[in-house]
Specification:
By secondary structure, this protein is mainly α. Helices cover about 75% and strands about 0% of the residues. The mean pLDDT is about 95.
Length: about 60
């Protein structure tokens, strides 16, 4: 379903945008900060994602 880190980030962003920007809503806060952090560290996340996908293929 989500084969690339770009697809993952896009889905995370869509989930975040489906909610109102509400800093009092814990779900929005979690999605927003996860999206921001992953975007900021995207190169490292891409490495992690490739490792996860390799493990899924070997599992």
């Amino acid at each position: 379903m989500l084969d690339t880190p770009e697809e993952f980030l896009s889905k995370l962003n869509q989930m975040r945008k489906d909610l109102d920007d509400d800093p009092d809503d814990p779900e929005w806060v979690v999605l927003h900060h996860a999206f921001c952090f992953i975007s900021y560290k995207f190169g490292e996340f891409g490495e992690y994602w490739r490792e996860v996908k390799e493990q899924e293929g070997n599992g």
